[in-house]
């Protein structure tokens, strides 16, 4: 590609109207265009905002419920409430599922929506460098949802724990593993969205992309309910398993979360592998005719 | 200038475009005609590098289009008015495209007004009629003020005023020295728009010539004349070098103008009951030419 750029373009005949004042192509322009794309589609914009409200709200409601019901809990629960129940209020399995479901779908829609509508052709005609275009899209969307995930996780954590503080069972951010819970939950957002984008880049159809994304990221690991070693090892490769390990801050492992064989490092690695695989797939499959 | 050299595209074992070699020159509107499924859209997509040719090459102003990092300033295209995301507004759609090529926002407003959809710029495209989408597509093609413009079936869904506007726009773009390549499956749309025609059928080149030359391909026009003295007039006309086909009182004359037929009849005191001239129909020429290569022929008459 670079040798073609270095080569001066053949002179166009005079009457063809020479291309004047063409600014140098900048990756930044593509980032700006992709950013604009996200916010000019109302459905995407609302999903982004709606999800940002919904997930912290789930945490607040869980914390409020526990706060209200706390006096009636049996002593056994009261004693063990901190930290595993408290952390579950901060970011529950349900919150992780909503995140995977919502962001996986948003990622799939962002990419498949362009293929199924035909917008992708107008796009490639405007930007023949398909890989740059896809790279810009992945960059903008992943960056946005990294920030989005961080905001959602931080708000969910601090608001729920502040409520639980009223019963003396709120987790402090300094508590061992608390920061990991917040980070692990935050990073689930970009991992989910990029997985959806990569799957849609392969399949291109809107419905197929959404269903497959949900099937692969949500249903597959949930359906693996065998306790056999190899099944658990396969299950560990999914983002939801990584999130469970990262968010499990109970030091003696007595939480009701499925005991995971993943190490904390291994869990971060699972996130990283999904992101890298999604980028590679997303950038490679653009060769096919749209 | 667009140069297609032995351009071929196969889908499975089927050739959508078959060894097409054509040069589309600047400064005039070139019509790209063919029946449904002739390979027009596939050809246009290959010109823009969207679909890779199975064989052959295609260049836009001397280079393959895909070598440009950004395309809008080199070629503008309306491939399909439906190639938009309905959730965006017309303005939003154009701003996205403009941003990727660093085209200023003023230009977006300019082309919106130029295309006559300035008033609808803030509305979502999903509510647009086909005609308005065509206008939006044309606006998008003009964003980069490019020397090469491609339009695939731009007349579909346009109202008469819109058709007129598009024709004048294409002509003025060509007059500015641009290459304007417009596809259609209807000859009647091209008749008043294109100066030059490229006709394909089943992916193969059938004709690449001026509109005038193309018109000459048909029956070349004829004169119809009705007279009670058909036999006598027929002899006179044949003597004057015309071709005559007789059917009762009616003669169909080729090779002579209506004026000449009238003069001959007058000179020889032949009573005429009807004299009419019939110009060559481009539509007929087109139908005749592509009859053998229609991909999707309609079923038998009911």
Automatic annotation (TrEMBL), chain B:
Domain ABC transporter: 2-227
An MF annotation (GO) of this entry: ATP binding
Protein's name in the database: ABC transporter ATP-binding protein
Family annotation (InterPro entries): AAA+_ATPase, ABC_transporter-like_ATP-bd, ABC_transporter-like_CS, P-loop_NTPase
Keywords: ATP-binding, Nucleotide-binding, Transport
Species annotation: Actinorhabdospora filicis
SMART domains, per database record: AAA
Name of a matching Pfam family: ABC_tran
Highest taxon above the source species: Bacteria
SUPFAM superfamilies documented for this protein: P-loop containing nucleoside triphosphate hydrolases
Lineage: Bacteria, Bacillati, Actinomycetota, Actinomycetes, Micromonosporales
């Amino acid at each position: 590609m670079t040798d073609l750029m270095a080569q001066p373009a053949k002179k166009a005949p005079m009457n063809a109207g020479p291309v004047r004042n063409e600014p140098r192509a900048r990756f930044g322009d593509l980032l700006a265009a992709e950013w604009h794309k996200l916010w000019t589609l109302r459905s995407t914009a609302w999903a982004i905002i709606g999800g940002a409200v919904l997930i912290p709200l789930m945490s607040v409601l869980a914390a409020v419920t526990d706060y209200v019901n706390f006096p009636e809990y049996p002593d056994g629960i009261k004693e063990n409430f901190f930290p595993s129940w408290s952390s579950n209020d901060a970011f529950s399995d349900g919150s992780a599922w909503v995140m995977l479901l919502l962001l996986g779908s948003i990622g799939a829609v962002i990419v498949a929506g362009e293929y199924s509508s035909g917008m992708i052709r107008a796009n490639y005609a405007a930007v023949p460098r398909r890989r740059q275009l896809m790279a810009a899209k992945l960059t903008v969307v992943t960056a946005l949802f990294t920030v989005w995930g961080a905001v959602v996780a931080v708000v969910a954590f601090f608001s729920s724990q502040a409520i639980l503080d009223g019963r003396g069972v709120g987790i402090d951010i300094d508590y061992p593993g608390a920061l990991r819970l917040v980070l692990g939950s935050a990073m689930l957002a970009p991992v989910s969205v990029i997985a959806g984008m990569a799957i849609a880049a392969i399949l291109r159809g809107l419905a197929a992309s959404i269903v497959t994304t949900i099937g692969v990221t949500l249903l597959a690991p949930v359906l693996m309910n065998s306790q056999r070693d190899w099944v658990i090892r396969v299950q560990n490769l999914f983002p939801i398993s990584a999130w469970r390990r990262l968010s499990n801050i109970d030091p003696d492992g007595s939480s009701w979360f499925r005991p995971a064989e993943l190490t904390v490092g291994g869990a971060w690695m699972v996130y990283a592998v999904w992101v890298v695989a999604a980028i590679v797939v997303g950038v490679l499959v653009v060769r096919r005719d749209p | 200038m667009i140069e297609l050299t032995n351009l071929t595209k196969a889908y499975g074992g089927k050739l959508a475009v078959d060894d097409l070699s054509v040069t589309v020159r600047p400064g005039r509107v070139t019509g790209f005609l063919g029946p449904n499924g002739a390979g027009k859209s596939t050809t246009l997509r290959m010109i823009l590098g969207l679909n890779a040719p199975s064989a052959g090459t295609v260049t836009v102003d001397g280079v393959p289009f895909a070598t440009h990092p950004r395309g809008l300033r080199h070629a503008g295209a309306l491939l399909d008015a439906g190639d938009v995301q309905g959730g965006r507004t017309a303005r939003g759609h154009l701003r996205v495209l403009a941003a990727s090529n660093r085209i200023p926002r003023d230009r977006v407003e300019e082309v919106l007004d130029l295309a006559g959809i300035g008033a609808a710029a803030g509305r979502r495209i999903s509510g647009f009629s086909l005609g308005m989408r065509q206008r939006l597509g044309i606006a998008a093609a003009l964003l980069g003020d490019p020397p090469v413009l491609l339009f695939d079936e731009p007349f579909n869904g346009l109202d008469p005023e819109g058709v007129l506007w598009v024709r004048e726009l294409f002509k003025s773009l060509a007059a500015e020295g641009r290459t304007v390549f417009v596809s259609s499956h209807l000859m009647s749309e091209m008749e008043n728009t294109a100066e030059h025609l490229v006709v394909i059928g089943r992916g193969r080149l059938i004709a690449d010539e001026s509109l005038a030359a193309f018109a000459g391909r048909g029956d070349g026009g004829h004169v119809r004349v009705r007279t009670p003295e058909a036999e006598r007039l027929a002899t006179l006309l044949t003597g004057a070098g015309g071709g005559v086909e007789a059917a009762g009182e009616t003669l169909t004359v080729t090779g002579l103008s209506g004026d000449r037929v009238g003069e001959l009849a007058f000179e020889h005191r032949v009573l005429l009951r009807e004299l009419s001239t019939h110009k060559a129909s481009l539509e007929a020429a087109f139908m005749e030419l592509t009859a053998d290569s229609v991909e999707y022929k309609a079923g038998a008459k009911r």
